[in-house]
Amino acid sequence: AQDWLVNINENSLDEIKAETGRILHASQAAKLMIYGCTGVLTGPPNSGKSSLLNCLAGWQKAIVTDIKGTTRDWVEGTCQIGPLSLTLIDTAGLEDGLAASQDTIEKVAQRKTIETLGRADIILFVLDNSEPVVELDTEFIEIIASRKVITILNKSDLPSKLDPTRLSNIFSNTVQISAKNGTGIEDLKQKILQTSGMINVDLWQPICFTRRQENLLEQLSNTQSKQQAATITKELFEGQV
């Protein structure tokens, strides 16, 4: 920030904004490394979310059966993937038409799933690769539209009936696994690191720690004026409130 302030007239605004973007990106990755990452397992009932949680956590945390809707409460497990400590939350399966269910317990479980999605750093959307693609609730799609999503095509050990081309662009970041057999799990871990920004993290890159610094950097990345850029940089450097 001090170099920007001193050389504001020499440096182009585009260069400053590009550097600001790199700092913001590195800061998000650094926060996940320092504080840990919350991943939410979601998807239709019986797609294999609980089996995947047990596979990643390394021991049985969730009850696994062939009965749809077994998970109605949150189940958590933690795993270490490279530098990333990942807390996984297994949620109730998303039935078609969230608001349509007449089962009060089911309604509560579905609503908890929606609330949990709101605080996820990354969403692991699990589909049964041996079944045709399901119709997804509009509310669910709206909630995760701006989130980091990995679509996991589970049960790859069975004949495939799912056509990935029918999925929305939101679910285009895919990986195939079999949670039952443990195949594709290493590919999934790499996909998690990549999606969360852990790949090629520059540990020497400056980062911001406070929400105030992040707000100022976001303002700086969007400014169109060198004068305004100088004002924001001065406030950032001098620590003015």
Q: What does it look like?
A:
The protein has 241 residues and is an alpha/beta fold. Helices cover 39% and strands 15% of the residues. Helix 5 links the parallel strand 4 and strand 5. The longest helix has 23 residues. It is elongated. About 8% of the residues have low confidence.
Distance between the termini: 16 Å
Largest sheet: 6 strands, mixed
Main β-sheet, spatial strand arrangement: 2-3-1-4-5-6
Question: How much of the polypeptide forms β-strand, as a percent range?
Answer: 5-15%
- H and E string: HHEHEEHEHEEHHH
- Overall number of strands: 6
What spatial form do the alpha-carbon principal axes imply? elongated
Average residue-wise pLDDT = 79
Work out the helicity level.
25-40%
